[in-house]
């Protein structure tokens, strides 16, 4: 029951999107019990973003929502990996990437809650 | 002070949107004290979504944000009802629908917080 | 590490966006320790929103996400100020504006978490 929402102010080509999708599907395994089998992704490229008052550089805002909780160490590993993915695939500087986590208590799937 | 955000990877026609809007306005009453009189909705159709590594099937990601808290039982009823709405109106399989809840402590309206 | 996401169902011209950006960069200082130097913004104009079952009036849904916590008093000041900004710049009635806060425990930047 993880969900990762990607917002970037650059274009994501189909090929890049496929790469990012596959890499996020692997990265999510850094959180115990999570895998691509339950992962939902949302991509919004060409978003209208500002960071530090400017929109002149590439920017990424990534939201990771998981059912339940994880350890600091696990979030650290995931932040490092997700930052690598967007840095490598879209040439976004790590210092222009925010990754925000949400631990979710109530999450529905297939008509009932986990 | 509830807010429901709909993201689907299919088109929502005006007629379907009106139906869904009306049904969500009823469904939110399953949470005590909530009604369409305070409900805000956001629709993003044709979103770029993946589930389980694939974007070949219809997918819905619904976020429900409420001021305060509710019981498990109430969330269960709402998940069942929202799933029915999107299953019936947009032919999305229940197994392709995530519904995520957020309980909000600080919420502003009309220039001040509740 | 604050992030403010703006969704409105009206158009935001470039000039208006610049004004709002600058004003939000000032307003965020109402939360101790926060400033435009760490502020990320997202704008989605012409969004598909409903409030109280209707989409005939202008509507704004603003999400403010901060790393850590703040006091009720600080949130009150920020709600007042953000409401003023959208009321003045986009002529949206305060009674048509929701501002939702999220206090975030895990937040990554530059490859590691705060």
TrEMBL record, chains A, B, C:
Enzyme class: isomerase
Location(s), subcellular: Secreted
Main location: secreted
Cross-referenced InterPro entries: Macrophage_inhib_fac, Tautomerase/MIF_sf
EC number: 5.3.2.1, 5.3.3.12
Position of the signal peptide: none
Record keyword Isomerase present: yes
SUPFAM superfamilies, per the entry: Tautomerase/MIF (SSF55331)
Catalytic activity, as annotated: L-dopachrome = 5,6-dihydroxyindole-2-carboxylate; 3-phenylpyruvate = enol-phenylpyruvate
GO molecular function terms noted in the UniProt entry: cytokine activity; dopachrome isomerase activity; phenylpyruvate tautomerase activity
Domain of life: Bacteria
Name of one Pfam family that matches: MIF
GO cellular component: extracellular space
Alphabetized UniProt keyword annotations: Cytokine, Isomerase, Secreted
PANTHER family membership: D-DOPACHROME DECARBOXYLASE, MACROPHAGE MIGRATION INHIBITORY FACTOR
Protein name: L-dopachrome isomerase
